[in-house]
């Protein structure tokens, strides 16, 4: 086992990153709630074009919020993360209706491929479209439900589970 892997297994998760749109259907509200429960972590969010459009509760939270970044800057930002999160809504009210729908019908998982290419642990919502590529505890951690406690427990589990962290890190090299 390399020294880098040994170091990463001992390192605690400190920096949690999200890069993408700040829409409710993309999980921005869930990120806010997760951050409220994980005050010991730093949350970095990149993606809003107009920072004055961010809901007040999210702006006032202890989140580090930034505008969109250029595509060429994305890999560098991702490498700074200890964990990457994709908390997409499991369902949402469609664009032109009052009917709840499966967001995976409307989501292009480009972010998923960027996240996977970074070599940083990826946490994702349990969406069928994403599970065509993401495999729980192999190349990602799939959070069964979009309940705040499920996300918090999943992140803390990786943080505290030596064998899971080792398996994940060895898979990434």
Largest sheet: spatial strand order: 3-2-1-4-7-8
CATH superfamily: Glycogen Phosphorylase B
Envelope shape: globular
How many β-strands, per DSSP?
8
- What count of helical segments does DSSP give? 8
The ordered H/E elements are HEHEHEHEEEHEHEHH
Q: Termini, distance in Å?
A: 11 Å
What percent of residues adopt helix (DSSP H or I)? 25-40%
* Integer count of domains: 1
Name of the level-1 CATH class: Alpha Beta
CATH topology: Rossmann fold
- What share of the residues does DSSP label as strand, in percent? 15-25%
CATH architecture term: 3-Layer(aba) Sandwich
The largest sheet is: 6 strands, parallel
Given helix and strand content, the structural type is: alpha/beta
The overall pLDDT average reads 79
Contiguous runs where pLDDT drops below 50 for at least 5 residues = none
Q: Whole-number radius of gyration?
A: 16 Å
Would you write up a description of this structure?
There is one protein chain. The protein has 173 residues and is of the alpha/beta class. The chain is globular, with a radius of gyration of 16 Å. The strands form two sheets. Strands 3-2-1-4-7-8 form a six-stranded parallel β-sheet, sandwiched between helices. The chain has a two-stranded antiparallel sheet with strand order 5-6. It has helices spanning 3-10, 28-37, 56-60, 74-79, 110-118, 128-131, 148-160, 162-172; strands at 15-19, 42-46, 64-66, 83-86, 92-93, 100-101, 122-125, 141-143. The chain has one domain: Glycogen Phosphorylase B (Rossmann fold, 3-Layer(aba) Sandwich), CATH 3.40.50.
């Amino acid at each position: 086992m390399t020294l880098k892997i040994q170091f990463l297994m001992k390192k605690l998760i400190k920096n949690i990153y999200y890069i993408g749109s700040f829409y409710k259907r993309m999980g921005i509200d869930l990120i806010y709630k997760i951050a409220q429960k994980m005050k010991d972590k730093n949350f970095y969010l990149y993606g809003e074009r107009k920072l004055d459009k961010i809901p007040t509760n999210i702006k006032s939270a202890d989140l580090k919020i930034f505008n969109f970044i250029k595509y060429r800057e994305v890999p560098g930002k991702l490498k700074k993360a200890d964990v990457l999160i994709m908390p997409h809504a499991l369902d949402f009210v469609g664009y032109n209706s009052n009917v709840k729908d499966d967001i995976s019908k409307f989501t292009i998982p480009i972010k998923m491929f960027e996240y996977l290419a970074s070599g940083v642990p990826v946490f994702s919502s349990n969406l069928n479209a994403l599970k065509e590529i993401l495999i729980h505890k192999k190349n990602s951690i799939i959070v069964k439900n979009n309940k705040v406690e499920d996300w918090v427990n999943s992140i803390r589990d990786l943080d505290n589970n030596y064998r899971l962290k080792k398996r994940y890190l060895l898979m990434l090299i």
